[in-house]
Amino acid sequence: MQETKISIQEAFKPDIAQEMSQGSSCSESEPFALQAIDDSMEPEFDAGCIIIIDPTGVARDGAYVFAKDNQGEYIFRQLRIIDERYYLAPLNDLYETFEISGVKQIEGVITQRAGKKRSYHKSYY
Question: Per CATH, which fold does 32-123 belong to?
Fold first, then answer.
C-alpha cells in the first residue's frame, strides 16, 4: 500500500474537501488525524507526532485546538480565554501568541496525541 501525503492547505481547499466527501463515508463531524510539522507546541507535542482532532469538541480555556489564524491559515495551538478575549498560544516561547475573533475560528479540539512509542500516547478529553 502506498502512503499519500497532502498539505493542510490542499486538504482543506473546497474542491478537495468536496471530492473527498463524495467518495467517502466520512462526515464533517468525524475525528481526523494530522501530523505536527514544527516545534511550536513542544514539549507537549513533538514535531512529527500525530494529533487526533474532534471537530465537534468543545473549545475551553486551555484546550489544544486546530484553528484558522487571522490570515486564514490552519494552525495548532492552545486556546487561552482571558477577559472574554480569545488567544492562540504556542507552548514554545519562540513563537508568538495572537488574538482571534472568537470560537468561530476554531475548527476542532485535539483529543489525542500519538507517536511511535505507546508511552507517548495521551488523551486530552
Answer: Umud Fragment, subunit A (2.10.109)
Confirm if 87 and 101 have CB atoms less than 8 A apart. no
Query: Which of 106, 104, 110 is closest to 123 using CA atoms?
Result: 110
End-to-end Cα, the chain, rounded Å: 32
Cell numbers for 64, please give them: 489544544
| Residue 58: strand pairing partners | none
Q: What is the dihedral of CA 91, 94, 97, 103, to 10 degrees?
A: -50
**Per-block mean pLDDT, blocks of 10 residues, the chain (125 long):** 46 49 62 93 93 94 96 95 97 96 95 78 78
Query: Which residues have CB under 8 Å from 51's CB, separation 6+?
Result: 33, 34, 35, 36, 45, 64, 66, 76, 110, 112, 113, 114
Sorted by where each begins, the domain ranges of the chain are 32-123
Q: Which single residue is written with the C-alpha cell 475525528?
A: 31
Q: How far apart are CA 120 and CA 117, in angstroms?
A: 5
> pTM score > 0.85 for this model?
no
